[in-house]
């Protein structure tokens, strides 16, 4: 399957990925090779990875899985491990895991010794099509998503679709939300095809999503303009994710589950402010509620979620900036939303 070329690296899928990894290692002559895993990928993915990787690994470091561990304290543990095992600027860190691990591992590598090489090997659908692509690396600040980080590209991203067989269905569906988002913001035909698919984990669908995200990142690598469209559903979605993470009375949502809610809400805002047709809005809502369980929000929940909007990374000069849809496949950025529409959006979601 054709690799996806970015400015400074490539995304290799399937058989090409194994060959690309071993060729890269043979060429670079790294002083140390470190592998970062979490409890799940150590058990389910590490044995297969060792069989396909020809070079010796100097040290493997394991972290706890989950968004609640994506913080600076975990970074400190990994930095200390790299230092204790004589990591230097010619070392390599391979990140074998989902979006939490690749985000955190990329940040650790980008800041250790002022930057060492890293390779992402995503093991969840979400990380394959989104988190490991584009060079965004970072950690949360408390429950606030991705407040600390850098943009720095990996040496390569290696996608092995067989790792998806290790996931529970909920994790797979979480990644599906980001794939659907790619269609909504950039490719109406992809949206139409993908929302009808029974199997959205096939290599061609994964490749298509990677192509869409990579194309956007190539045009705007540092998120000055077009790249902001990748945040559709994320302004309210991140606030919902953070709120549910820190509120023990609410079920903790996976990233894709929260973003699915966010896309329905921001779809409503798109209808009100940018002329997204009502039929398209209802199609978006129907599609996401078919795959994602509806979340119940009371007035206090909504008040708390809206207070979190001020921490969104896209904000500027005190303004909350939204990505909205003019039509399916056509997104616009930097839209200011009147506050009274937020509650109407939640009303529409609850209907």
TrEMBL record:
Residues 175-315 form the 3-dehydroquinate synthase C-terminal domain. GO terms for molecular function: 3-dehydroquinate synthase activity; metal ion binding; nucleotide binding. It comes from the Bacteria. The keyword Kinase does not apply. Its cofactor is Co(2+); Zn(2+); NAD(+). Its EC number is 4.2.3.4. One of its GO terms (biological process) is chorismate biosynthetic process. InterPro entries: Dehydroquinate_synthase, DHQ_synth_AroB, DHQ_synth_fam, DHQS/DOIS_N, DHQS_C. It is an enzyme of class 4 (lyase). Keywords: Cobalt, Lyase, Metal-binding, NAD, Nucleotide-binding, Zinc. Residues 62-173 form the 3-dehydroquinate synthase N-terminal domain. One of its GO terms (cellular component) is cytoplasm. It holds the Pfam family DHQS_C. Catalyzes the conversion of 3-deoxy-D-arabino-heptulosonate 7-phosphate (DAHP) to dehydroquinate (DHQ). This is 3-dehydroquinate synthase. It comes from Flagellimonas hadalis. The lineage of its organism: Bacteria, Pseudomonadati, Bacteroidota, Flavobacteriia, Flavobacteriales.
């Amino acid at each position: 399957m054709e690799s996806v070329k970015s400015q400074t690296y490539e995304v290799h899928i399937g058989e090409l990925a194994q060959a690309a990894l071993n060729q890269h290692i043979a060429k670079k002559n790294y002083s140390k090779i470190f592998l970062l895993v979490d409890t799940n990928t150590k058990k389910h993915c590490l044995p297969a990875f060792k069989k396909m990787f020809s070079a010796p690994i100097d040290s493997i470091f394991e972290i706890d899985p989950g968004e609640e561990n994506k913080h600076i304290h975990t970074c400190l543990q990994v930095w200390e491990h790299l230092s204790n095992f004589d990591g230097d600027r010619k070392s390599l860190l391979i990140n074998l895991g989902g979006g939490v691990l690749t985000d955190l591992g990329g940040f650790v590598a980008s800041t250790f010794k002022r930057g060492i090489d890293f390779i992402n090997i995503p093991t969840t659908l979400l990380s394959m099509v989104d988190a490991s692509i584009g060079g965004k690396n970072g950690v949360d600040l408390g429950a606030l998503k991705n407040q600390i980080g850098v943009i720095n590209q990996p040496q390569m991203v290696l996608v092995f679709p067989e790792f998806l067989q290790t996931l529970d269905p909920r994790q797979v569906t979480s990644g599906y939300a980001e794939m659907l988002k790619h269609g909504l913001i950039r490719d109406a035909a992809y949206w139409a095809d993908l929302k009808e698919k029974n199997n959205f984990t096939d290599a061609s669908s994964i490749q298509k999503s990677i192509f869409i995200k990579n194309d956007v990142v190539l045009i705007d690598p540092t998120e000055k303009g077009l790249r902001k469209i990748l945040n559709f559903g994320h302004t309210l979605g991140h606030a919902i994710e953070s709120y549910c993470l820190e509120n023990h009375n609410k079920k903790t949502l996976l990233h894709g589950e929260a973003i699915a809610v966010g896309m329905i809400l921001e779809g409503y805002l798109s209808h009100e402010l940018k002329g997204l047709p009502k039929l398209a809005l209802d199609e978006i809502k129907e599609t996401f509620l078919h795959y994602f369980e509806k979340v119940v929000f009371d007035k206090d929940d909504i008040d708390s979620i809206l207070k979190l909007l001020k921490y969104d990374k896209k904000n500027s000069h005190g303004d909350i900036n939204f990505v909205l849809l003019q039509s399916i496949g056509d997104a616009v950025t930097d839209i200011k939303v009147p506050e009274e529409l937020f509650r109407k959006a939640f009303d529409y979601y609850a209907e």
